[in-house]
Amino acid sequence: MPVFAIIWPWIGLGAAVALLVVLFATDGLQADRRASRWFDLQWLVWLAFAAYLLHQFEAHGVDLLGQPYAFRTDLCRILSYRDPIACPVPLSFITAVNVGTVWIAGLVSVLLVRRMPPIGLSFFAIPLVNALTHIGSAVVEWRYNPGLLTACVLFVPLNIWTLWVARARLGAPLRALGLTLAGGIAVHAVLMGSLMAFLRGYLPLWPLNGLQVLNGLVPAALMYLGMRRLMAPPPPPPVPQQPRRRSAPRPKPQRAEVE
After folding, report:
1. ∠ at Cα 152 (158, 119), nearest 5°?
2. pTM to 2 decimals?
């Protein structure tokens, strides 16, 4: 785990570059190749997946200031741990959060988006709230934080555009947009709540990490529970019943007349 906890942002960077080439050089990831890729929800979810891999590299690989693995240092500072070496936030926790929310939950969303579009839309829950936290922190402290650039340049326009496409072009109900936001808030609440429970000695390390992996599936689960009626396959059409043919009345036998 210690080696993987350091190199996984670089693996994600390579995957993001390869995925971007496929997205913009081919149409293999589009669900409907007759329309523009920018109106194809499946293509947009794949693009969001690649964007999040780039964001992870800025936050956990090398940030704009050239600092490696800077997000954990910034998180420790926010939690009042000035020394990043003595900070008790484990590397495995950071890894579990990012692998669970993107590498696992993200792949679930892109693989199910064609059959269940709301599940694909649920992937935007995490970058939506993540962008708000990065921008809000930068405004309050008036300073750069690791991941801020990709949150502003990639997450904000991509989230706005995709939600508009889902609503205006694909007819997604407002409930789906609300569930997307609620899923992102729930993920971040569980993330920080479980971390604080660990730091105060109420939660062991392995349950903490396992919870983060499952936590990444919360937006998809909320979307499924809230939209299951719309995602259920339509019932088969009733078989038309042919009207019964009325048999012609039998002629009554005539009595022979006796002469």
Report:
1. 35
2. 0.85
